[in-house]
Design goal:
With 430 residues, the protein is an alpha/beta fold. Helix content is 37%, strand content 13%. It contains 14 helices and 13 strands. The strands form two sheets. Strands 3-2-1-4-5-6-7-8 form an eight-stranded mixed β-sheet, with helices on both faces. Bound molecules: ligand SAJ. Ligand SAJ is lined by residues 150-154, 206-207, 210, 214, 247-248, 250, 253-255, 257-258, 313-314. Keywords: NAD, Oxidoreductase, Signal.
Length: 430
């Protein structure tokens, strides 16, 4: 049976290792963190993912998977390290370069080297292949180099790793075939062979497609406010057309993928990527737009108390990476008029650089709840839960609040033209 060496035991590398091990491969996982290595070898995991702990525990106990600090000889090397972004919005591929250099001394002729990390177009041909050449191998003949981007949705990783279609881009045709055969052992979905640069671009365009379409929805929110129409209703009706799929507006785009990957295209084709850059600007403008609406709603109050509900970049996760909610919280906090409290049932205090409140603390005497993540806990909020608020008003930026109660006013982000400034003493109902 083939031996696989996976470099980087994070959100993608760890589940990928476990799945190869469960399929019968002998898997060695490599990570720079001693804690990560020790945790895995004791049969535990350092990240929270549904079903992953049990799977890792089983394959470690069966002796099919072990972790260590350095690579060793194997048939297949899979690089799954992060590609963060520099301050100037260019990709930081240092970890990919380091990982490639770290496996190079262990390579033998006929090995397969796969990069799963998201990378700018041409990285396989212009960066990875030359490193392999420097170590004495002909990347066109001796070893098989391929890019096989991960495409799994956080929250569904174990399912999507097996069921999604995989794109395998080879530096040569034979490399694509050899790398594709590796995935065919674990993937139920289709495995498609192509060139490396096509695979690199396809991955980036998937996330860019989402980002551009979300920007269109977010722009619609601003237009809707200007012309006085409910953007959500417009989207619902327009999407009845069989070829229209307007995405959902919100407080901005977060996470480590959609908010980052489009820049990997921009850095390689600045002049030509005008629409992509505009979309990024629109999505980046949404946190400030949300804060401006909060100011509008609270304009008549002397000392507005605001409860921020949800800090993650999307609902039902604990992931706060690139989260627009954090940006909104911090911009609100900088405004001395506001007393801002943050509450998120999924986030631990250690994850954020500011104090968190309990739900009760956040709501006590508050004038406004700003909902920034569509957690299930918020979808089912009741008027009783809001009883301690001073004025019962919700600003729902995720269009997720199901509450329909005459004592509670809910403003949706797509329906802002109806916003009335909150009054300290709400007028008596007649
Ligand atoms: N969002 C909206 N409106 C929408 C959809 C999403 O505002 O209509 C926002 C979310 O609130 C969130 C952000 O966009 O802030 C991204 O969320 P997401 O759930 O759409 O995607 P990610 O970033 O969690 O995962 C994406 C996925 N890519 C695609 O769906 C094309 C996933 O399959 C990729 O593997 C992942 O990026 C990645 O690692 O690249």
């Amino acid at each position: 049976m083939k031996k696989v060496c996976v470099v980087g035991l994070g959100y993608i590398g760890l589940p990928t290792s476990a799945i190869f091990a469960a399929a019968g491969f002998d898997v060695v996982g490599v990570d720079v963190s001693e804690t990560v290595v020790a945790t895995i070898n004791s049969g535990n995991i350092h990240i929270e993912k549904t079903g992953l702990a049990e799977l890792v525990n089983r394959v470690v106990k069966e002796g099919k998977f072990r972790a260590q600090l350095a690579p060793e000889e194997a048939n297949v090397f899979i690089i799954a390290v992060p590609t963060p972004i520099h301050d100037d919005y260019t990709a930081n591929i240092d970890y990919v370069i380091e990982a490639t250099k770290s496996v190079a001394p262990y390579l033998r002729k006929g090995n397969v080297v796969i990069v799963e990390s998201t990378i700018p177009p041409r990285t396989m041909d212009d960066v990875v292949a030359p490193i392999i050449r420097e170590h004495g191998f002909d990347p066109e003949q001796d070893v098989y180099l391929a890019h096989c981007p991960e495409r799994v949705l956080p929250g569904r990783i174990l399912i999507e790793l097996v069921e999604n279609t995989r794109i395998v881009g080879g530096v040569t045709k034979e490399a694509a075939k050899q790398a594709a055969d590796v995935y065919r052992a674990i993937v139920k979905g289709e495995v498609i062979e192509t060139e490396a640069v096509t695979a690199e671009m396809a991955k980036l365009m998937e996330n860019t497609f989402r980002d551009v379409n979300i920007a269109l929805a977010n722009e619609l929110v601003k237009i809707a406010q200007r012309v006085g129409v409910n953007a959500h209703k417009v989207i619902e009706l327009a999407n009845k057309h069989p070829r229209v799929n307007i995405h959902l507006p919100g407080p901005g785009v977060g996470g480590h993928c959609l908010a980052v990957d489009p820049y990997f295209i921009v850095e390689k084709a600045k002049e030509e990527s005008q629409l992509i850059q505009t979309a990024r600007r629109i999505n980046n403008s949404m946190p400030h737009f949300v804060v401006e609406q909060v100011k509008r709603m609270t304009a008549e109050l002397e000392a507005p108390v605001i409860a921020v509900f949800g800090l993650t970049y999307k609902g039902n996760t604990d992931d706060v990476r690139e989260s627009p909610a954090i940006e909104i919280y911090e911009e609100l906090r900088r405004n001395e008029r506001f007393d801002v409290r943050a509450y998120d049932p999924h986030v631990k205090p250690s994850q954020v650089p500011f104090p968190l409140s309990t739900k009760e603390e956040a709501l006590d005497g508050a004038h406004l709840v700003v909902v920034l993540a569509d957690h299930n806990e918020f979808k089912t909020l009741t008027a009783e839960e809001l009883a301690s608020m001073k004025t019962k008003v919700i600003f729902d930026t995720k269009n997720c609040i199901g509450l329909d109660d005459e004592d509670v006013t809910v403003y949706q982000i797509g329906h802002l033209s109806v916003v009335q400034a909150i009054q300290e003493q709400p007028p008596e109902r007649v």
